[in-house]
């Protein structure tokens, strides 16, 4: 076999390998439809109930602040959050019931409904808005999906899902989500306005297996319209499918 | 000669009435417009200086870039020392720390839950320290509609329109929801001590006033401020001096500190497009005179032509009996100057009368200025100055002279040889 033949065979093998790789990707995406992937993402991310103690590190213009909070969450629509640290924020509570949000501040002893343009305000100076907090966590209920490609993020092969809003009351018309093909955990996300303008990004730094679920334990949210390096969100502890205190999702619990 | 011409003007109204009325109307409009623009310039400058811009304003560089949004997270720190420094270096100014507060005013019901709320914009100034000039600067005492001025910490003055919209009055509680200097949610309860009419459109729509110390506590800005306003001790705005002060300050600090949070000084003319407005209105005298000079000249030229036609025979006789063309031309100019003078006097008297009325009563511009980027007074008053008595005479006299000078050229085109033929027919 002369050198030309060997080179020709090598090129053919390379082409075959590339075709097989493309077919494998195509078949795996075909095997699991975009909606099915989204279902699996929701199943992993939204348990029946959960209690989470987390830390939010807000990188401001002048300094960085750490805010500790504890959240009791049921499904995608009910959440109660209490701020534990720093002292100035300690005791502030927030209650989300469906599409309504209230906050309680011990300094004023007032329960305030967060509505209108205030929903777009930043939560504690972070890159997250109240609107972000208000969103139903179940993506499948609000978006239709299509697989637009594949990419490896932090060493993990991911599907790229393009989500388009199917509900009217969503904060972001479209999203681009990188989903771990094995763990069904979101590894990266871009949230866009109707105009196509990038509004928020999410970068997952670490994922851990907790009680059989893949949990993003370190994430960086970035408001694309703001200067700065974004807000880090770290999960200290997470408990899933636990019994929550009775009547915690009641406005009266805000003042307790 | 003058008496002879004057008699001619008075007795032959056909030649003088139309030019007289034209000059009167033009001069009247010139005087009224000049006085009104003069008043508007003063009012806009004063309102913006006292409420928002100062004659100069000190901010951090980061704050200055986004000053429209009042980003308190980029506000000034160690303000006491900065105020002392400014006072020593620039004694021609009074210096006042301010915090602009954006957010919501939330009104509780009996259970302490939200009854109503509305977006609000407020000014925090030192209004409780005895001897502070801030209440006077903000016109608080004269603006009170209901209740009284804040007398202790935790009290708030709310715009009367805004208070009525929220359905609250003196004695009621209002919770301010805003953002601290660190970006956290700030909530603070205030008791409404009174309601006020600011006389500035944006503030009357959604404004409130709180004490600086209350704002510092609510927004976590210990010894901080969003901005420091510098106002001339004389109270009179001097654009050149304020520009120079800002230049000196920035030269000094710019050389030492490159930090984004180092203070920078911006003169009034460098804020909210006020410089352009001042430039435009500063040129208003020239603009107004030109606007009226040109059409008035055209109208009077036309009137002069008509007059010449009507007085064709008269001119012919005067030339035929040996009067010099130049003399005829000069008498026409003298006549027109007298008409211009009479029209200017009458127009100025009428214009000043209307201007004095507008100086006392003003003109409500609320509906016209809803989207103005600067702080606009809701009522603009005219301002009569010594120059107001003279400004009308420029277009009044010049326009009549130009009009007649052009129309009178026909005299020189008349040929003496043809005059007798014309007189025969």
List keywords for this structure.
heterodimer; A: alpha+beta; 13-stranded antiparallel β-sheet; B: 425 residues; alpha+beta; 2 domains; 6-stranded mixed beta barrel; two-stranded antiparallel ribbon; 12 strands; 19% strand
Proportion of residues in β-strands of chain A: 35-45%
Strand content of chain B: 15-25%
Structure classification of chain B:
alpha+beta
Pick out the low-confidence regions of chain B.
Answer: none
How can the largest sheet of chain B be summarized? 6 strands, mixed, barrel
Q: What is Rg of chain A?
A: 22 Å
How is the quaternary structure best described? heterodimer
How would you characterize the overall build of this protein?
The complex is a heterodimer of chains A (256) and B (425). With 256 residues, chain A is of the alpha+beta class. Chain A has three helices and 13 strands; from the N terminus they run ααββββββαβββββββ. A 13-stranded antiparallel sheet of chain A has the order 6-5-4-3-2-1-13-12-11-10-9-8-7. In chain A, a hairpin with a 2-residue loop joins strand 7 and strand 8 (156-165). Chain A is elongated. The model of chain A has no long low-confidence stretch (mean pLDDT 87). Chain B has 425 residues and is an alpha+beta fold. Chain B folds into two domains: 2-47 and 280-424, no CATH class; 56-236, no CATH class. Helix content of chain B is 53%, strand content 19%. Chain B is built from 18 helices and twelve strands. Chain B has helices spanning 2-11, 13-53, 61-65, 79-89, 134-137, 140-143, 160-166, 201-206, 212-218, 239-256, 274-282, 284-310, 312-320, 325-361, 388-391, 393-407, 410-413, 416-424, and strands at residues 56-60, 93-108, 114-125, 144-147, 155-159, 173-179, 185-196, 207-211, 227-232, 263-267, 363-364, 379-380. A six-stranded mixed β-barrel of chain B has the order 2-3-8-5-7-6. The relative contact order of chain B is 0.19. The model of chain B has no long low-confidence stretch (mean pLDDT 86). At the A-B interface, strand 6 of A face strand 2, strand 3, strand 6 and strand 7 of B.
């Amino acid at each position: 076999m002369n050198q030309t033949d060997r080179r020709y065979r090598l090129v053919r093998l390379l082409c075959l390998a590339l075709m097989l790789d493309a077919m494998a990707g195509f078949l795996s995406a075909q095997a699991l439809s975009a909606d099915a992937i989204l279902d699996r993402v929701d199943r992993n991310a939204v348990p029946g109930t959960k209690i989470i103690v987390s830390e939010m590190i807000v990188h401001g213009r002048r300094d960085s602040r750490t805010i500790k909070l504890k959240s009791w969450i049921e499904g995608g629509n009910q959440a109660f959050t209490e701020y534990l640290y720093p002292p100035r924020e300690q005791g502030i509570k927030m209650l989300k019931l469906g599409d309504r949000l209230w906050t309680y501040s011990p300094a004023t002893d007032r329960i305030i409904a967060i509505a209108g343009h205030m929903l777009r305000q930043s939560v504690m100076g972070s890159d997250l808005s109240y609107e972000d907090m208000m969103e139903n966590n179940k993506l499948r209920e609000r978006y239709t999906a299509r697989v637009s490609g594949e990419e490896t993020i932090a060493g993990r092969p991911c599907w790229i899902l393009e989500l388009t809003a199917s509900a009217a009351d969503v904060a972001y018309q479209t999203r681009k989500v990188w989903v771990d093909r094995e763990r069904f955990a979101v590894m990266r996300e871009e949230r866009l306005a109707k105009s196509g303008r990038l509004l928020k990004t999410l970068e997952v730094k670490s994922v851990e297996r907790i009680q059989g679920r893949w949990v993003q334990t370190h994430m960086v949210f970035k408001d694309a319209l703001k200067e700065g390096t974004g807000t880090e969100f770290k999960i200290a502890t997470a408990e899933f499918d636990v019994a929550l205190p009775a009547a915690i999702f009641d406005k009266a619990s805000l003042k307790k | 000669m003058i008496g002879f011409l004057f008699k001619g003007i008075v007795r032959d109204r056909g030649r003088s009435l139309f030019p007289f009325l034209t000059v009167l109307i033009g001069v009247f409009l010139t005087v009224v417009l000049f006085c009104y623009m003069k008043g508007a310039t003063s009012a806009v400058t004063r309102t913006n200086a006292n409420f928002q811009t100062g004659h100069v304003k000190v901010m951090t560089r980061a704050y200055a870039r986004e000053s429209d949004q009042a980003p308190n997270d980029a506000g000034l720190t160690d303000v006491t020392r900065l105020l002392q420094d400014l006072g020593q270096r620039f004694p021609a100014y009074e210096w006042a720390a301010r915090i602009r507060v954006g957010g919501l005013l939330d009104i509780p019901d009996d259970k302490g839950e939200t009854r109503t709320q509305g977006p609000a914009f407020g000014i925090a100034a030192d209004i409780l320290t005895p001897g502070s000039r801030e209440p006077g600067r903000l016109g608080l005492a004269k603006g009170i509609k209901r209740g009284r001025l804040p007398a202790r910490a935790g009290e708030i003055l709310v715009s009367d329109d805004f208070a009525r919209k929220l359905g609250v009055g003196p004695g009621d509680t209002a919770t301010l929801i805003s953002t601290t200097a660190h970006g956290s949610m700030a909530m603070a309860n205030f008791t409404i001590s009174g309601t006020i009419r600011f006389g500035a459109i944006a503030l009357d729509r959604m404004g409130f006033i709180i004490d600086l110390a209350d704002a510092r506590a609510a927004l976590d800005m210990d010894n901080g401020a969003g901005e420091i306003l510098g106002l001339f001790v004389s109270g009179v705005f001097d654009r050149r001096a304020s520009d120079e002060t800002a230049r000196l300050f920035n030269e000094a600090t710019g050389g030492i500190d490159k930090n984004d949070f180092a203070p920078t000084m911006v003169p009034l003319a460098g804020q909210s497009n006020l410089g352009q407005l001042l430039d435009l209105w500063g040129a208003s005298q020239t603009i107004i005179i030109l606007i009226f000079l040109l059409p008035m000249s055209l109208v009077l030229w036309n009137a002069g032509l008509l007059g010449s036609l009507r007085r064709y025979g008269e001119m012919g006789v005067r030339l035929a009996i040996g009067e010099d063309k130049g003399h005829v031309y000069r008498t026409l100019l003298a006549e027109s100057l007298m008409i211009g003078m009479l029209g200017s006097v009458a127009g100025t008297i009428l214009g000043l009368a209307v201007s004095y009325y507008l100086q006392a009563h003003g003109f409500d511009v609320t509906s016209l200025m809803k989207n103005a980027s600067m702080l606009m007074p809701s009522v603009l008053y005219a301002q009569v100055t010594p120059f107001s008595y003279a400004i009308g005479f420029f277009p009044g006299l010049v326009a009549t002279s130009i009009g007649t000078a052009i129309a009178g050229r026909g005299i020189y085109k008349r040929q003496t040889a043809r005059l007798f033929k014309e007189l025969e027919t």
